[in-house]
Specification:
GO molecular function: 4 iron, 4 sulfur cluster binding; metal ion binding; oxidoreductase activity
Number of domains: 2
Order of helices and strands: HHHHHHHHHHH
InterPro entries: 4Fe4S_Fe-S-bd, 4Fe4S_Fe_S_CS, HdrC_iron-sulfur_subunit, Helical_ferredxn
CATH topology of the largest domain: Fumarate Reductase Iron-sulfur Protein, Chain B, domain 2
Keywords: 4Fe-4S, Iron, Iron-sulfur, Metal-binding, Oxidoreductase
Organism: Desulfopila aestuarii DSM 18488
CATH architecture of the largest domain: Orthogonal Bundle
CATH class of the largest domain: Mainly Alpha
Largest sheet: none
GO cellular component, one term: plasma membrane
Length: 187
């Protein structure tokens, strides 16, 4: 691995501005490490959560977009909960995934974007996840048609998966959130 010097002067200030517009202030991080220490899957990351925050603070957008971490993050919010400065690390990971998809960057973990897109489309359309529809969309995207068939059938038989999506209030507002989110980031 090649050593590289990282400094705010070499970073992308436009990227930092976009994060601030999304209420993600990475500049308040003082690298205490609580986010990384609490992350249940940090052992599988190529960059620890505190490294992601530091690189974002330095505007190192390209390095973050090439990382496996942004795709492997489970968005459990443990990191953000433990952060003494309330940095939205989960939101930062979401922004990085969306940015990578928009820029057409090949994901470091190919199956995750297929799941991410399927999940987001389900929430956008139904206001929450419609599991059967989301699973179907994911299977079509990933090409793994039979991989979890036994598990899926077992869950269906136990009533864990519904054939009909659950109705919720506020679907138009959720669609507005998705529409606004895209416009906000492209500003």
């Amino acid at each position: 691995m090649q050593n590289m010097t990282i400094s705010p002067a070499k970073g992308n200030r436009k990227f930092l501005k976009k994060l601030k517009e999304r209420n993600i202030d990475v500049q308040t991080c003082y690298q205490c490490g609580r986010c990384s220490a609490g992350c249940p899957i940090a052992d599988f990351f190529d960059l620890q959560p505190m490294e992601v925050v530091r690189l974002a603070g330095y505007g190192m957008e390209e390095k973050l977009l090439a990382s496996e971490t942004i795709w492997l993050c489970a968005s459990c919010d443990t990191c953000a909960t433990r952060c003494p400065n309330s940095i939205d690390i989960t939101g930062l990971m979401d922004v990085m995934r969306e940015l990578a998809l928009r820029k057409g960057i090949k994901p470091a973990v190919p199956q995750v974007p297929a799941f991410h897109l399927s999940f987001m489309e389900s929430v956008k359309r139904w206001g929450r996840t419609y599991e059967i529809g989301m699973i179907g969309a994911y299977k079509l995207r990933s090409g793994d048609y039979m991989g979890d068939m036994k598990l899926g059938l077992s869950m269906f038989m136990k009533g864990k998966l519904s054939l009909v999506p659950h109705s919720i209030e506020g679907k138009p507002e959720i669609r507005d959130i998705f529409a606004g989110k895209g416009k906000e980031y492209e500003r």
